[in-house]
Design goal:
Number of helices: 10
Radius of gyration: 20 Å
Shape: globular
Largest sheet: 7 strands, mixed
Number of strands: 19
Helix content: 10-25%
Oligomer: single chain
């Protein structure tokens, strides 16, 4: 099979590797679509994200969908031919966090495209059968691949305690900010304010769920009063300003990956009794993602702005530099790039 391999910063090569053989509890998936995440681009450009360092060849890509073409000995062969969305993680089911239902926090987690675990920019991948979620024909391969970032949005909205009538401020109108805005609306939020310094991204936010958009360079975010603030930017100023916009007993959810340390308004957090938490991936979100997409409450297909084959994975990793780009998708065997 063909595999796109990161061999060093700004170095992507196409390799031939054997098609893997599934273990007893695994399925072999022929990949039909892989979304490119900001973390993939960061590994490509910087060779690391925080403590996760690329020390050898790595296959990127953790947003994936495909068709089951082989099964392990413990998996029913009736699964062959099923279209699936891949939840790209393998926790230790015996860990304390997994047993508590927080398998995303399992300390022994093996996650696609997080060194040294290879990801999905390949023609075939293996995944445990329980993390190969079936999808109906009404959902496209590309949308199924984007269940992964959608799951981040779902986990964020759950942590933010968004319900009918809620108001929420979201900082950052990248892909995660856009899916989070859509999820917030789907969960019943009546006010969804999205801020971003980029004008094109603000236009995107208006299309994907925002009831109001702000330019933090000219609009005073602190003047607003919302039930919840979700940061999808990772920018220190956005986090601090967003916290100031949360009413007493509200919730602050940190999703964006920025600096590892920065000052927070501790007195304000104490005096308003704000709940401040982070989001690290997701758990048990794929069934919700499927229903949101099937019900037309979240539009993932419209977020795809460019398509590439495996041989042009490097172009896909740089697509975020193209004006108007939201989400690039790699499709093994795809023969022609679609313009943004």
């Amino acid at each position: 099979m063909q595999v796109s391999v990161l061999s060093g910063p700004h170095e992507i090569r196409l390799e031939e590797r054997p098609v893997p053989t599934p273990a007893a509890d695994e399925v072999l998936v022929q990949v039909t679509a892989v979304g490119v995440c900001g973390s993939d681009a960061h590994y490509y450009r910087e060779g690391r994200i925080g403590d996760h360092v690329v020390n050898g060849p790595l296959v990127l890509g953790h947003e994936a969908a495909g068709v089951i073409v082989g099964v392990g000995s413990a998996v029913a062969d009736t699964r062959i031919g099923q279209r699936v969305s891949i939840e790209p993680q393998r926790p230790d089911p015996t860990s304390a966090q997994s047993r508590a239902g927080r398998y995303n926090l399992c300390p022994s987690m093996e996650f696609f495209a997080t060194p040294p675990i290879d990801g999905a920019l390949a023609e075939y991948v293996l995944i445990q059968s329980v993390f190969a979620h079936t999808i109906p024909d009404e959902i496209s391969d590309e949308a199924a691949a984007l269940f992964e970032p959608l799951s981040v949005g779902i986990a964020s909205a759950q942590k933010a305690r968004i319900t009918a009538g809620s108001s929420v401020l979201i900082a950052g109108a990248g892909p995660v900010g856009l899916v989070t805005a859509q999820v917030a609306r789907a969960f019943g939020a009546t006010t969804v304010i999205v801020s971003d310094i980029d004008a094109a991204r603000r236009v995107n936010a208006s299309t994907f769920g925002a009831t109001q958009v702000l330019d933090p360079a000219t609009d005073d975010v602190r003047e607003f009063e919302v039930d919840a603030f979700i940061d999808a930017s990772g920018a220190a100023r956005a986090v601090v300003d967003g916290i100031h916009a949360v009413r007493p007993a509200g919730t602050v959810v940190l999703v964006g990956m920025g600096g590892s340390d920065y000052a927070l308004p501790i007195s304000l957090i104490q005096n308003r009794e704000l709940v401040l938490t982070g989001v690290f991936r997701y758990a048990n979100t794929w069934p919700i993602a499927r229903e949101l997409v099937l019900g037309g409450l979240v539009d993932l297909d419209a977020m795809v702005t460019a398509r590439f084959d495996l041989a042009h994975a490097e172009d896909a990793l740089n697509a975020d530099k193209v004006a108007g780009s939201i989400k690039a998708v790699v499709i093994p065997g795809f023969s022609k790039e679609t313009d943004v």
